[in-house]
């Protein structure tokens, strides 16, 4: 399953850090961040609940960029 989320991040470097963090979360098959569009595309592993995974993605992204936001609920 693939989903696109709106994000709020201040700079392209921070967006790249968010992408790296998202790709390391269990349940994420692939994630990409487009800083110019302020979007994050996430492909999930089979059988996972996207909102549960996205809570972990947001938590890990905030470890590298505390001011970031991902709108998924």
TrEMBL record:
<feature type="domain" description="HMA">
    <location>
        <begin position="1"/>
        <end position="69"/>
    </location>
</feature>
<dbReference type="GO" id="GO:0046872">
    <property type="term" value="F:metal ion binding"/>
</dbReference>
<dbReference type="InterPro" id="IPR006121">
    <property type="entry name" value="HMA_dom"/>
</dbReference>
<dbReference type="Pfam" id="PF00403">
    <property type="entry name" value="HMA"/>
</dbReference>
<dbReference type="InterPro" id="IPR036163">
    <property type="entry name" value="HMA_dom_sf"/>
</dbReference>
<protein>
    <submittedName>
        <fullName>Cadmium ABC transporter ATPase</fullName>
    </submittedName>
</protein>
């Amino acid at each position: 399953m693939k989903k696109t989320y709106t994000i709020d991040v201040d700079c392209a470097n921070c967006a790249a850090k968010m992408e790296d963090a998202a790709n390391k979360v269990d349940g994420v098959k692939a994630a990409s961040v487009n800083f110019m569009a302020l979007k994050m595309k996430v492909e999930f592993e089979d059988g996972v609940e996207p909102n549960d995974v996205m809570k972990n993605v947001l938590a890990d992204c905030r470890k590298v960029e505390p001011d970031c936001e991902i709108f998924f609920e």
